[in-house]
Hints:
Elements: H1 27-40, E1 45-47, E2 57-61, E3 76-87, E4 91-96, E5 106-111, E6 113-119, E7 125-131, H2 132-145, H3 156-161, H4 163-170
Antiparallel strand pairs: 1-2, 2-3, 3-6, 4-5, 6-7
EC number: 3.5.1.88
Enzyme class: hydrolase
Keywords: Hydrolase, Iron, Metal-binding, Protein biosynthesis
Amino acid sequence: MILPIYVYGQSALRKPTEEIGPDYEGLKELIDNMYETMYNASGVGLAAPQIGLSIRLFVVDADVMGDEYEECKGFKRAFINPEITNKSQETVSMEEGCLSLPGINESVSRAKWVEVRYQDENMQEHEEKIEGYAARVFQHEYDHLEGHVFTDRISPLRRQLIKNKLNNIAKGKTACRYKTK
């Protein structure tokens, strides 16, 4: 089922998220719905706060970017209760967009790699090092679980320059080809 994506201005995007356990009702169906919603919107990641749920869950499928970024080949996972355990001091700036901020793209500086711990859709523990563009996708979605959107990571001047666009999104004055809330 395709769910509406919460856009900038919705309080769900700023709420703290809570860990979930193996008894979380409808988890498999929720993950399937999140993938379907993400694909429908042509995204490579979707976090639970973006569909109005304050839980520590996001899905990614960056395989479509595998031709350009080798590390994205096969990078499809559900991340439950993820945490960043270590990250590089070296950062890389690249342009990002977000399904919750339609029409806005800005350069964001992020760690070159991250070491993470999480549970998959079967609640199996994993630890891995994620590098390059895949690390960027992970950090972007992880930020949603912390109540942040990527525009929080740009300079105050850039934020001021896009203030009208952000206000229009919050007021529902933006064209979007997918269902939003």
